[in-house]
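quick one before i forget lol
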Amino acid sequence: MSIRDLHEIPKLRDGLSYLYVERCKIDQEAKAIAIHDAQGKIPVPCASLTLLMLGPGTHITHAAIKTLGENGCLVVWCGEGGVRFYAQGAGETRSAIRLIKQAKLSSDPELRIKVVRRLYQMRFKESLPETLTLQQIRGKEGIRVREVYAKMSRETGVDWTGRSYKSSNWFEADPVNRALSSANSCLYGLCHAAIVSLGYSQALGFIHTGKQLSFVYDIADLYKTEVTIPAAFKAAAIGIGNIEREVRIACRDYFRESRLLERIADNIEDALNVPIEESQIPLGNVDEDGAIPGGIWDPDSGAVQGGHNYAYDIEEEVNERDSDDS
């Protein structure tokens, strides 16, 4: 994706725009930033951006990073076409509302199972009966994925003997398994970028657990049968020597053409659209000023006002009791 017309920038989701750049230099200009490449200079009103994705060959100044941070624009360092996630800067919001909701959903067994069932349901075209146990749902999912592998093997003529590879012995795996690993890595990077840009944690998973990328795996599994499995088998069928590069390019092109990042954002919101009590939401408009403290947790009211010295309240209570006693 080259830097052309800012009006062509796609949306991460409604009202949240993102920009991917590569092989350019970014510096501060007035209260915004400017991007310099072989075609010239493009001023960017970074206050309107939620996410700036920095691809290979990108150079950015300290002043530009400071300006982006002050305007609440998340900066992500990623691979070519946004297919790998390396690091992130400060996000758009100072609020932890989404993260708090995610934590509550993942820690409450009754709420968590609702999200788990919803994530599984999003993978199937037909509805899943409420009477199915979680073990039965996992069995149906296993059958679904196995049938996709078999279908792609028939269509491409690539032999499939099962998922098998070791990162320590990478080239001992057959080409299609290496292609699958490379394609999945690209997909994980894209999902990771979407998750953190929306203010969620990549570690608090629902189906997956115990890894720093558990939620990334939850979301990425929604798209593997659509994206990475077909891409891997097609790359293996071509038989090009550097199959890892071939499949990364195929994934990058599909991500852009299908606007997958936009779909990921919508799917995350759909999956976590489980009603919960809102009493744990911090008080105050924390997005209005980064210096405003959030709420203070309270076991009864959920949260009380932060930035307040409660010693004065105690002193007032003591004075009132003394007055009553006298």
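fyi The chain has three domains: 6-88, 97-271, 278-317.
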